[in-house]
Amino acid sequence: MSPQKLLVAVPVLLSAVLLAACSKPAPPEEPVRAVKLMTVGVGNIQSSLEFAADVRPRVESRLGFRVGGKLVRRAVELGQTVKAGQVIAQLDPQDYKLAADAARAQVAAAQTNRDLAAADYKRYKELRDQNFISGAELERRDTALKAAQAQLEQAQAQLNSQGNQAGYTTLVADVSGVVTAVTAEVGQVVAAGSPVVQIAQDGPRDVVFAVPEDKVALIKVGSKVDVRVWASKTQVEGTVREVAASADPVTRTFVVKVALQAQDALPLGTTVAVVPKALDRSATQVIKLPTSALLQAGGASQVWVLDSASMTVKPQQVTVATADGNDAVITQGLTPGMQVVVAGVHVLSPGQKVTVYKQKGAVVPAEPAQAAMDSVAVPAATASAPASASAK
Q1: Where are the beta strands (DSSP E) in 129-213?
Q2: Based on the domain organization, do 226 and 301 belong to the same domain?
């Protein structure tokens, strides 16, 4: 090449190299990701509402003395079985015995006064019969006799009262049952009416549990409840006996009491699980999805729906009503027949091309969607909860 041509070619080549260095490289193509799919269908809710409960006595009495005093003996302990008429505790009776002795002395004095007034009246009556005294004098003696008789009756009533007070220093069980609480110890001075022991009466027992405000209206008196003992496989049926009219001020829940049959009586304090049949949802038709299919975006739940024509995914906002085991119950946003991504949702983007994931050595086709139907848990247009088929 001649020197003149070389001088012209060199600048041209340098310009081409500079232009090539300044231009942006072509962006890499977005990878095609393999995803697991589920064909949306309609099915039944499998889980049921279950509440923790315990067995309590139908009647539980707090027994206390009818008089105050110092506790000198307590004959029962926590958990002990007592019979009606059995002595439970004893107060120091000395003061009450002294008061009874004083009342007894007052009766004796009143008895003497009455006898004296009666004898006096008898003598004056004989004198009146002989016209030695006036009728007015006899009436005064009759009035004195009546007053003495009234004082005697008053003293006798006081004696009876003091005798009862002395008897009240012994606390006796009025029913048979089990001691469930002890609230006073020997040496303690207790006031009249203060509980000393608490006794669970023998007889009917209840299963007691609490339900939230949004469920209490569904539980009616007389409805059936399945009761299952946690420590064993024992299961019995009970009947709702009482539903609280107001909520607990702390927990804001409503207490429900379930009556057990006499032959099904469980030990007091037994921990059980109860399943109210009024809250049974097994017949509810819903759409369900595994929780791995859900993605939170902008404060709302969404899933990736496959466009089978273009093999791309697009986001679809859904409404989650509740949980059914490890699945989420969907009330809005999906209809049977849609194909939803159930794995790898966090690495997808709108319009991204995907392929169906297939396990090595096996081809698992997507199961056909179930026939669309209305769900009782959702308004007409949208199916409600569990999804059924999955495609890998």
Answers
A1: 170-172, 177-182, 189-190, 195-201, 205-211
A2: no
- Considering only 120-124, 134-138, 280-284, 365-369, which range has the smallest mean pLDDT? 365-369
CB 313 within 8 A of CB 304: yes
Read off the tokens for 245. 């009219």
Distance in angstroms (rounded) separating the CA atoms of residues 176 and 269: 18
**Buried b or exposed e, range 243-255, using 16+ CB within 10 angstroms:** beeeeeeeeebbb
pLDDT in tens, 154-187: 999 989 988 888 889 999 999 899 999 999 999 9
Query: Which amino acid would we find at residue 340?
Result: V
- For residue 24, tell me if it sits in a domain: no
Query: Which residues pair with residue 197 across a beta bridge?
Result: 63, 182
**Which residue is associated with the tokens 């004083």?**
102
The amino acid at residue 288 is K
Range of the structural domain that residue 40 is part of: 29-47+281-392
Tally: H helices and E strands in the chain: 4, 23
Are residues 163 and 100 in contact, defined by beta-carbon separation less than 8 angstroms?
yes
CATH at 258: 2.40.30.170
**pLDDT tens-digit profile of 266-296?**
888 889 999 898 887 776 788 888 888 888 8
Contact between 286 and 329 (Cβ < 8 Å)? yes
Asked whether residue 275 falls in the same domain as residue 364, the answer is: no
